[in-house]
Each structure stands twice: as structure tokens, then as C-alpha cells.
Design brief:
The complex is a heterodimer of chains A (259) and B (316). Chain A is mainly alpha-helical and 259 residues long. Chain A is 74% helix and 2% strand. Chain A has one domain. In chain A, strands 1-2 form a two-stranded antiparallel sheet. Chain B has 316 residues and is of the alpha/beta class. The chains are: A mainly alpha (259), B alpha/beta (316). Chains A and B meet through helix 1 and helix 5 of A and helix 2 and helix 4 of B. Chain A: It comes from Actinomadura rubrobrunea. Chain A: Keywords: Membrane, Transmembrane, Transmembrane helix.
């Protein structure tokens, strides 16, 4: 099993795709972070566009920027399985490991571990900019206040579990382009609309679970407080999504004919 | 090729373990919806032989090979390697090497990394990756990404991958595709060398001239069914001998007495109904000097076209 996991990790490392996705993850996180830092407490057209950096909600939002990277880890997960079908390397993989369940298990474990590392890198980059940024804007530079440890830890865990969601989605749809379009459309359009329009439903979506673990309730910038699960609820919901999609990946792949 | 001590022990203690490496396909059938892609195919590929697996496009060759390798589940029938289904093999990569298609590579991965992934997953030492690249003439390209590889280089990489575990059974799907003449020559030598060492080699192809030069045994399929399963020599024998002699009349009478049908043609005798040895004996008996004795053969292509045309006509 260990050798299969090492082989899967080498598969991820031996192409440049992960670097590109990590770049996008860090880039998107820093973009959101920069937006919050720049506009926090700034007077616009008579009112404040965003609360000042001394507001705990603002601090949470700033650190939670790192969680926007989950989309890119999910895409990496999608590519991790649909790419094997696309390039025909799934044949090699099953010839070496005809017990497909073991290969799938190794893939799920290695992508989860890789996702945690990916999340850690994104979080570290976010912290490296947020701490001096907050200090400059006159906010707290402490990483222990305002649930920051929960937010950062939750983001890392969410990255690992979104990798599993990506694998499940890739195994289900198999067409790489279609799977990525579904993922992006889901996160950027469906979840975004449902979260604002029907928050009592939105809190149960994967994105809602991420908001729960990153303590982002949306209760600033003119929006009402959104329905949000408690942190432990978010963790359990994320785990459930990760396991359900891992099961989808396993069930769809173990018996399918590879033609 | 080196065998592993572990396997020798297993051979003794496992009664089902075959002494030789064979591929056995028994009444194998695969239906996709209402289409019978493979319909009751049976054949055996033996050690020390190159078995050619031939058929027109869509004949069910690739589906048969994929069932043999556990990638496609048969509707019925069995496909065994060394007496077991592929999924039941203990260390499949060390028993069977397979090269199924030239496209099975991630274009962004280097040749060496591609093989290292397989070595790691199979529990083989990583140096096997470099050895296999060396053996297939790809050592120079080891650190290049596959996206820059020609079709011929991809075929070589697929062969390198198939031989990573130094298996005794090799299954190759259209390995000559995309190879240049030097590459084809190299492939032929490579396959003959493996068969010479007692390996079992099953090669599917539609390039009949290639198969003709390398195969010992030929299985021809069309529309999912086996049309012929015979040694190549038997398949292409037309049963006619051409004899040139200084004493055509005497030899002709002797041969006809021996039960042969003989036609005289431009100083040649065309003989059928007896084998070459009988002709030689007849010549010896009447003291005829033979200047030429040739067993006429048809090309594999003719045999193939004749068989497949008959099959297509019959079912239409």
C-alpha cells in the first residue's frame, strides 16, 4: 500500500500541473486578501464599504481568503483521475495493480495528503501577507485571536477533503473538460447564488461547510448574517462530502471496463 | 532471463502452477449491448513461440487482449495466464508484460518518471526503469517529456514498460505501428530473442508482412470469431511442389506411380499430393537429377484475405 501511495505522489509531482494549480490557489487567495486589506474601513460614497480591520469579522474574512483555493485542489483531484482516462495511463495503472480497490485507496490517501500540503502552502502564503498587512492597517497581528487557528486549520482540512471531492467528480464524469466546467460552475455560480438566495439550503452545500470551518458568516458589507453551521458541523459535513465522493470514485472505477 | 527464487518455491508448493508460461483463451465472449464483439474465441499461445493474432479492424483483437489482462470483464468464457486469471496473479508485472496502445502516457511526464511510477507501484527496484530505457534505445531521451516523442519512441517506451518486470509472457497490441524500418527490424529481433529464451509472445497486428517474418503460430479472427488457428508454415503451404529435373519423363512416371498428380509446364513439373521427401525418394529410385525442388507457399496476406472475405460474405 505504501508503495502505491508513493507511486501516486510521484504521479502528481512528475508533471507541472500541481505547480500551476498551487499558483492559482495562492494567487486567488492573495487577490481576495488584498481586496479586503485595501478596502477595510475605507469611506466610500458616505458609508464604509467594509468594516475596519479591528472588527473580528473582518479579521476572519481576511484569513479565510485562503479557502478560495479549494477550487484549484478540487480541479487537481479531477485531473488526477480523468487525466488517467484521457491519456490512457489508467490501463498501465490497472495492469500493475489489478486489484483496483487498492489502487483507488492509494489514490484517495495520496490526494488527501497532497491536499493537506497544498492547503498548508496556501495558508502560509496568506499568513505571510496578512500579518504584516494587518499590522500596517493598524489591526491585530496575533494569529491566536478571532478563531484564526480554527480558520487556518479548517482551510487545510478543507483542501484535503476537496481533493477527494475532485477525485470522485473526475471518476464520475471522466471527461476532463466537462468535469472541470462542472466544478467551476458549481463553485462560482450555483453555490454562490444558493448561498445568498436560500442560505438555509446553502449552509448544507460543500461551500457552506467551508464557510462554517472558516467562520465566514457573511455578516458584513451590507449582507445579512447567513445561516451557517457551527465549526464542528462544518467539519463533519466536509468529511461526509469527502467520503461520499471517495465512495463514488471507488464504485465507478472498480468494475468498469477499460476499453 | 533471471527467475526469482521466490517463484521457484511457489512452483513447487502450488499444484496449479504451470511449469511453462502459457496463455489460454477458452470460449471467451464479450457482448457490448447487442453486439458480440468477441464470440467464443479459444486459442493457446505457447512458450518459445511468437503467436500472431490477426484480424481486420473491429475483429475483436483488442477486446480479447483486454479481457486477457483483466481490463474488460468477459460476458462468458475464461482467459488464463499461467493457469490463472490476470487479477489473481501475485506479481502481475513480473509474470506478464503488456503494451496495449501507444497513447498511454501523460505528455507532461518524462520517460524515466513514467517508468519509475510503474516500478514503485509494482515494487520493482527503480534501476529497472533505466535498464529498460537502455534496452529499448531510449536512454538518451529518458529525461524528456513524452509530449516531444515520436510515435516510434512511444512504442519503444511502451515496450520498455512491458519488460520492466522481466516477464515470461508478453502481450503486444500492434507494436509495429509507427516504427521506421530500422525500428521494425529491431522489434523483430527483440521478439525472436524473447521467444528464443522460452518466453510466450502474443502479438496482434494488421501488418501481415511483419507477422509473417516473426510469427511461429497464427490465430486469425474476424467478427469476433476464430477463423484459423495454425502454425504459420501450415497455413501458407499450398500443397504444391515445383520440381526441375534433367529427366522429367522418368520422374513424372515414378511420381504418378506414387500417387501424385503431376503437370508438366515449361520444363518444370508441378506436383501435388505428395511431400518433398517422397519426390526426393522417387528421384533417387529412377536416378533423376533434381536441379530445383521448391515447396510453393502463398503469402499470409492471400490466406488472410481469402479467409476474411469468405467470413464477411457468409455473414452478410
Amino acid at each position: 500500500m505504501i508503495r502505491l501511495i508513493r507511486a501516486e505522489l510521484l504521479k502528481i509531482r512528475s508533471t507541472r500541473m500541481w505547480l500551476g494549480m498551487l499558483g492559482l490557489s495562492v494567487g486567488f487567495s492573495l487577490l481576495g486578501l488584498g481586496f479586503y486589506l485595501a478596502l477595510a474601513g475605507v469611506e466610500m460614497e458616505g458609508g464604509q464599504s467594509l468594516p475596519p480591520v479591528t472588527d473580528p469579522d473582518m479579521v476572519r474574512a481576511i484569513y479565510a481568503s485562503a479557502s478560495s483555493g479549494v477550487l484549484f485542489m478540487m480541479i487537481l483531484g479531477i485531473i488526477g483521475i480523468s487525466g488517467e482516462y484521457r491519456h490512457g495511463t489508467i490501463t498501465q495503472a490497472f495492469l500493475v495493480t489489478p486489484r483496483r480497490g487498492r489502487l483507488l485507496a492509494a489514490k484517495l490517501v495520496s490526494y488527501f495528503v497532497f491536499g493537506l500540503g497544498f492547503g498548508l502552502a496556501t495558508v502560509l502564503a496568506t499568513v505571510a501577507v496578512a500579518v504584516p498587512g494587518l499590522a500596517i492597517r493598524g489591526g491585530s497581528a496575533s494569529l491566536l485571536d478571532h478563531d484564526v487557528p480554527t480558520i487556518l486549520g479548517g482551510t487545510v482540512l478543507a483542501m484535503g477533503l476537496y481533493a477527494l471531492v475532485g477525485l470522485g467528480l473526475g471518476a464520475l464524469i471522466r471527461n476532463q473538460v466537462a468535469a472541470i466546467l462542472v466544478a467551476v460552475g458549481w463553485v462560482q455560480i450555483v453555490e454562490a447564488i444558493v448561498t445568498v438566495a436560500v442560505p438555509q439550503v446553502g449552509q448544507w452545500l460543500p461551500g457552506g461547510a467551508v464557510r462554517a470551518v472558516t467562520r465566514t458568516t457573511g455578516g458584513f458589507g451590507g449582507l445579512d448574517e447567513l445561516n451557517t453551521l457551527p465549526v464542528w458541523g462544518g467539519v463533519l459535513l466536509l468529511l461526509a462530502y469527502g467520503l461520499v465522493f471517495a465512495a463514488i470514485a471507488a464504485v465507478t472505477t472498480v468494475r468498469r471496463d477499460i476499453t | 532471463m533471471p527467475r526469482h527464487g521466490r517463484e521457484k518455491v511457489k512452483r513447487r508448493c502450488c499444484p496449479n502452477w504451470h511449469d511453462v508460461s502459457v496463455i489460454e483463451v477458452q470460449e471467451l465472449t464479450k457482448r457490448f449491448g447487442t453486439v458480440r464483439a468477441v464470440d467464443g474465441v479459444s486459442f493457446t499461445a505457447r512458450p518459445g513461440e511468437v503467436t500472431g493474432f490477426l484480424g481486420p479492424n473491429g475483429a475483436g483483437k483488442t477486446t480479447t487482449l483486454r479481457m486477457l489482462l483483466g481490463l474488460v470483464t468477459p460476458t462468458s468464457g475464461r482467459a488464463l495466464i499461467n493457469g490463472r486469471r490476470y487479477a489473481e496473479l501475485e506479481r502481475p508485472v513480473m509474470e506478464v508484460g503488456a503494451a496495449l496502445e501507444a497513447t498511454g502516457f501523460n505528455p507532461g511526464r518524462t520517460a524515466r518518471d513514467h517508468l519509475k511510477v510503474a516500478c514503485m507501484a509494482a515494487g520493482l527496484p527503480l534501476r529497472r526503469a533505466d535498464e529498460a530505457l537502455e534496452a529499448t534505445g531510449l536512454a538518451e531521451a529518458a529525461d524528456r517529456r513524452v509530449i516531444g516523442f515520436s510515435l516510434g519512441m512511444r512504442q519503444r517506451l511502451a515496450l520498455a514498460e512491458a519488460t520492466l518486470g522481466e516477464p515470461r509472457v508478453l502481450i503486444l497490441d500492434e507494436p509495429a505501428n509507427g516504427l521506421d524500418p530500422a525500428g521494425i527490424h529491431w522489434l523483430r529481433e527483440f521478439l525472436r530473442h524473447l521467444a528464443g529464451q522460452g518466453c510466450t509472445v502474443l502479438v496482434s497486428s494488421h501488418v501481415l508482412a511483419e507477422v509473417e517474418q516473426v510469427a511461429d503460430h497464427v490465430v486469425i479472427v474476424a467478427r469476433g470469431r476464430v477463423l484459423r488457428d495454425a502454425p504459420l508454415a501450415e497455413l501458407v503451404r499450398r500443397g504444391e511442389l515445383t520440381v526441375r529435373t534433367r529427366q522429367p519423363e522418368e520422374l513424372r512416371r515414378a511420381l504418378e506411380d506414387a500417387g501424385a498428380a503431376v503437370r508438366a509446364e515449361d520444363g518444370l513439373l508441378r506436383v501435388s499430393g505428395v511431400d518433398a521427401e517422397r519426390v526426393g525418394r522417387a528421384a533417387l529410385e529412377v536416378g533423376a537429377v533434381l536441379t530445383e525442388l521448391v515447396e510453393e507457399r502463398s503469402g499470409l496476406e492471400d490466406v488472410f484475405l481469402e479467409l476474411t472475405r469468405a467470413e464477411m460474405g457468409e455473414t452478410q
